[in-house]
Design goal:
The protein is α+β, with helices and mostly antiparallel strands and about 325 residues long. Helix content is about 25%, strand content about 30%. The protein contains eight helices and 15 strands. Helix 3 crosses helix 4. The protein is globular and about 60 Å long. The relative contact order is 0.14.
Length: about 325
């Protein structure tokens, strides 16, 4: 079984996704498509008329929050469009959409014959209010009220149907405010980076299965023994890049690893290589993994471990000939 190619394409192109979700009545903000290199004054005027402030500038096909910039004022919108243009080049389509206030969550799910199985619902305890949207901490299970969690799952399932997704993994991001859940994105893939390491399923039948094992078993037509996540709370911190420059040294990793409840610390950035923060950067410094008796304990552990890590970063100078 596989998804229709048009559905798969819609799940990776932000404009097609927004268009299809709006058509099926899913909760999405006002949005419009623009093109880099067009007259900036006309772009701003059109955005102000159709969307207003605050708004968010987004490339259509980059991931990991690359090129995503919030603007509250006309001067900020102009600067955001220019910055995105420098990143993706002239003549490229991009979105401007209304900013969605509220707390953000991520849902990891598996679609099977149009039915959504929620594998994990992650809280994102650090506010993502801009101007850039660097993700840091994911913690599961969610601490939101059960009624709100059910509404998130139902909204995600309806959005997946609206896109035509029927099978396989999905990674959805939503914001929740007084008007309920709003769709930020529904991607036809699993969670990125190394984040899935904190997920384990079917622990009642041995060592359980990883998220990747579940996905492969479904793709091969094999039975899924259990979709129940382990009972422990779990979390991951995508270690943010604090500044641009050349990474010379990372200290405190072993100290962080030795904390009770910390499963592992992986530094994925390479020494003597450039660090590039968002909105241009496409990688994290690394990942911290934790498990504990409660989401609150896991969040505290991740922050404590992050506090152990210290960086030595040298300025990077551009050579001029």
């Amino acid at each position: 079984p596989h998804n229709d190619p048009m559905a798969a394409e819609a799940a990776r192109n932000k404009y097609r996704m927004r268009t299809m979700l709006a058509a099926c009545g899913a909760p999405v903000p006002a949005f419009a498509e623009f093109q880099t290199g067009d007259n900036l004054k006309e772009t701003i005027a059109r955005a102000e008329e159709s969307i207003g402030y605050p708004c968010v500038v987004k490339p259509e096909e980059l991931n990991g929050s690359r090129g995503v910039i919030r603007a509250d004022l006309r001067c900020e919108l102009g600067a955001a469009v220019r910055r995105l243009t420098a990143l993706i080049g002239d003549g490229q389509p991009f979105l401007i959409e209304g900013y969605i206030p509220g707390v953000e969550v991520a849902l990891e799910g598996l679609l099977d014959r149009d039915r959504l199985h929620c594998l994990a619902l992650f809280d994102k305890p650090d506010p993502l209010e801009g101007p850039y949207f660097e993700e840091t901490i994911y913690v599961t299970p969610s601490r939101l009220p059960l009624e709100t969690q059910n509404s998130i799952i139902e909204t995600t399932a309806a959005a997946a149907r609206g896109l035509g997704l029927q099978t396989g993994p999905i990674h959805a991001e939503l914001r929740i405010n007084d008007d309920g859940p709003w769709i930020v994105e529904v991607a036809g893939r699993s969670i990125g980076g190394l984040c899935s390491r904190i997920l384990r399923f079917g622990m009642e039948v041995g060592n359980g299965s990883s998220l990747e094992e579940l996905i492969l078993r479904q793709a091969c037509g094999l039975p899924l023994e259990s979709l129940e996540r382990e009972s422990q709370a779990g979390g991951v911190m995508m270690i943010p890049i604090p500044e641009a420059g050349i990474l010379r040294r990372v200290k405190g990793v072993e100290e962080a690893r030795d904390l009770a409840g910390i499963e592992d610390v992986q530094i994925t950035a390479k020494l003597d290589q450039s660090l590039v923060p968002l909105p241009e950067g496409d990688a994290y410094l690394g990942f911290i993994f934790a498990k504990g008796s409660s989401p609150a304990q896991v969040e505290e552990l991740l922050r404590k471990a992050h506090g152990c890590i210290q960086l030595e970063v040298d300025p990077e100078f551009e050579l001029v000939q």
